[in-house]
Write a structure and sequence with these properties.
heterodimer, A: 536 residues, alpha+beta, 31% helix, B: 696 residues, Nucleotidyltransferase, domain 5, Rossmann fold, eight-stranded mixed β-sheet, globular
Amino acid sequence: MTFDPTRLEIFKNLFHSVAEEMGAALRRAAFSPNIKERRDYSCAVFDGAGRVLAMGDHMPVHLGSMPMSVAAAIAALKLAPGDVALLNDPYAGGTHLPDLTMVMPVYFPGSPAPMFYIANRAHHADIGGAQAGSMGLARDIFQEGLRIPPVRIIERNGLNRDLLALILGNVRTAREREGDLTAQIAACRIGERRLGEIVAKYGRREVAAYGNHLLAYSASMMRTVLRSIPNGSYRGKDFLDDDGISNVPLRIASTIRIRGERAEVDFSGSAPQCAGNVNAVAAIAYSAVFYVFRCLLDEQVPATSGLMQPIRVFAPEGTIINARPPAAVAGGNVETSQRMVDSLLRALAHAIPKRIPAASQGTMNNLTLGGADPRRGGAPFAYYETIAGGMGARPGKDGVSGIHTHMTNSLNTPVEALEEAYPVRVRCYALRSGSGGPGLYRGGDGIVREIELLTETQVGLLCDRRRFSPYGLAGGKPGATGRNALIVDGRPRLLAGKCGFYAPAGAIVRIETPGGGGWGKQKGRTQRKKERVKRK
Amino acid sequence: MRIAIDTGGTFTDCVFVRDGALEVLKVPSTPHNPAEAIRHALEKILLGAQRPATSPGSNPVFLQRRQSGRQRGEAFLDLTCGTTVGTNALLERRGGRVALVTTAGFEDVVEIGRQARLRLYDFFVEKPLPLVSRERRFGLRERVGYDGRALARPTPAELARIVNKVVRSRVQSVAVCLLFSFANPAHEQAAARALRAKGLQVSVSHEILPEFREYERTSTTVVNAYLVPVLSSYLAEIEHHAAYAAREGRAGSHPARTQVRVMQSSGGIVRASIAAREPVRTILSGPAGGVLGAQYVASRAGFDRIITFDMGGTSTDVALIEGSLRTTNESQVAELPVAVPMLDIHTVGAGGGSLARFDRAGALRVGPESAGADPGPICYGRGEQPTVTDAHLVLGRIAAEGFLGGEFRLDERRTRMWMERTRGSMRSLEAFAQGILDVANAVMEKAIRVISVERGHDPRDYALVAFGGAGGLHACELASALRMPRVLVPKFPGGLSALGILRADVVKDFSQTVRLTVGARQETRAALDHAFRRLKRRGLREMRAEGFSPGQICTDCLLDMRYVGQAYELTVPAVGDFVESFHRAHERRYGYADPARSTEIVNVRARLIGATPKPELPRRREGGADASAAVLGTRRTVFARHAWATLVYDRAKLRAGNRFAGPAILTEYSATTVLSPGWRARVDAYGNLSLTPSLA
């Protein structure tokens, strides 16, 4: 296969800028803090066969799994020009219910099939269900919220108002949802317009050819990485604390087999699907594998489907890696996905120890708040956030403190935006000193966040690494586990990692997030320090 | 006499007006201490101008006289500088030792930032180091609510405790940023008073940026505090040089008054004493001058919708201008958010010195790594990796001899040898060179898309104004790729930034977060009037200090608006039906508007402008089209894989009205312009080159 290296670089930039422009439009026009301030969304461009050509630099957990959304939309609906599909069903292209995904075909006159698909996914702060924020403990998917299989939200350029009314009738903050959905539609239109311009300029044949070249190019990049890993079979395992219902730890086992320029990732041996909500679907396993291998590429490589071409993923059905309906799944996307990465990195550390960091905090510390806002005449509110923690130490570098790692990269909501929007007061937002694991290189510190509730509030916590600490590597010590507490009248009470409850006005939720694991023996660090002092 | 000086990486450019004539002087920059070059330039202009101008070949100082003028002592020296001292101190982390006072419990906000990482797929990613380390961050026990209510006042004992800690931390400068200080600054004021009473230099967040989002506001305030020690000593040095040069230049008669001003990132100038107090406003000082200069030159040439394209050795600055200049409050400098208004200038890491290489899967990359001044491009004699400049040389687009007026010879043989070795799978040396230029152009095309298409502007409606050392080399190809109908290469592209600085007005920006839901017309109006009155009162006071009376000041009032519930605002003028203006702006930017949704005003902004006298470029009558008098010779040049016999013109000899067709190469002292095949050039009445595609 031959391509012009210059053109390749140009098309890489073009497709990527389409995804980025969609993201910018979505963020700026959105209404909920979770999208506009925390940027919990992703955008991507696909070819006519549903293969990713470009993804914006958004949320890793979304990006690897979006191809399944496109595939599900194509399979379920015959999308005509001017249609946009909407879905969130984890068992039909989604990941968990709050993530609403839109898929739009891009047709050109005279062609019977779409030349591209574009998709964006945004995490909505509420999609109904038993608990405000739709991330609470549940025993099946029906308790978790509104389940939307692939349906047309836009049909022949017209908004499907019946469908919209049905959705808005089932969520707590309808006006905000409407605004966010409108922003998602606007982002689709912007992507469509930009692709139209590119095709007008370069012609269909050229654009399609370079789409294929990009895929092949990414695949060849990945093959060079796989070749750099010694052949062999590497095992890793790690545990989730529990499923929030029983007390049993849940094993995530992984085996990575490297044969030349091919890899096989097998999650066999992982725990059976559980009664709680930390079940994942196969799309998430695929995302985690994609993320880990993508990180081994040190170059700025286009994040296309081609990267996964030499990699095979086996996610056994009926396990928490690939649950069957109607298992509850809200935590699979945010917690189990992180643990899969920890398990995979542990396996790879056997093969390429100098390229793999110790465990990062390994949880997203999901917090949901909901209730009636007395400042706004009792209007309902629903808020969702995730809290950063410590990054695992790297060979040669300390871990970063107070940062989101691996499968998420959402921002915080500024205190000055949060308190204006919701009846809460942030008491403290600080680094959790000393929580990083000691070692030659130290793990990063976690965070302490205290939020005072100014009215009676339904609180949901979905956190892990409260029992099993983030591991150290090469002799480094583990990071500190996280802790959740509720302080009422000055008296703190320890909370479970995963729980839901109503808290009275004046109560303070205190969350201490885990630190990262250390790398290398602590003795070396003391040595290093001494040497540095001597040199001075 | 009025002098404007722009300090660049290689040259320090001066533009000044003497006896009604505009003159340009270039002296070599002195990166270890930029004030040296300024002293040198001031001496040349004020003391040494009696001596004949030295030729560029024998001496690095180049004095170009636009018109002859009589040397005469003047009563007043008015010096305005564009400075990169702030940017460089920030990039190299060479600012002052700073302490930070925050609300207790939020000491780490400045380190946590927005809790996200800069690169997604990188186990080894780092966070930018905070400018103030943990042991110098102090929490004051106080609290203000979202609505400005004081929930806990800082007690005198608490203030004393904090002041004591700050004093003991032996810092040069202090930043104070408390939660919700934009809604109620009383606690910040109390803290600042107590710290200033100890003789400390204090930067206070509600004075620098009274807007919501604590991390961005803290970061901006800390950057300010960090730069205060550096900028104040630098500016004191310049004031000293200016006073000295003015005194000596007058040969000892009555003392000369001097005034030193500094260009701000927003495109306006302020007194040095204010810039020394608020240095965070000067970070993009130099590039802002370029944008202003380009805007002026283009408007004289008849274009008010332009995209400026300033391509230097290591980076390229682009900006879009539609009539008036546009500022943004969402800039990042050295990976730190700086939320004061800056001209909306987008910078990418691709310039003449950018390195080209093949990555592991065989794709060609250009930049962001640069050969810099050392080793420099291959053709400078030491580098071994091909750069954009080397590619131009191989394709015959720059001349091996006439670089910097012949001062500097380029080694073409060396370039060919090394590029031959590194060309990988490329068919030929020429294909490789063309590939490098194409990739560099793609990077710059993307930069222009960011400021145009991504924000809803079609580049086809704009003229490209190209300047900087390499701007003219890429302009035609870039304009073709973006289907832009015209390129303007200004007269002296090297002195354009200094010219912009010379013509800048005194500008002061004030803002205040108000968070006002738009309700009944009269109530809203009254609340806005109140907010604007307060901003203007402060503004007029500060403008008086700059020497302007209220009658000489023009004020722009703006509103940052959004739909209730959104987080990002669009700025619209506070005149007429601003709600309607907002809906229209939203439709234009995001493709939809929702008149049924209520809107809110987040910030009010007032910009006060005091006009300065402006020198005009001389206009010449356009003469004949025949440009043959300027032809230096013919050279073999490669365009689109074909060799062409290309005429080379001496730009200094072109006359207004001259016309010619591409391909052509135009050389001048510090820049080269390439006219691609299929393009036509005309020299306009101001000496600018106006380039258009033949078939457009």
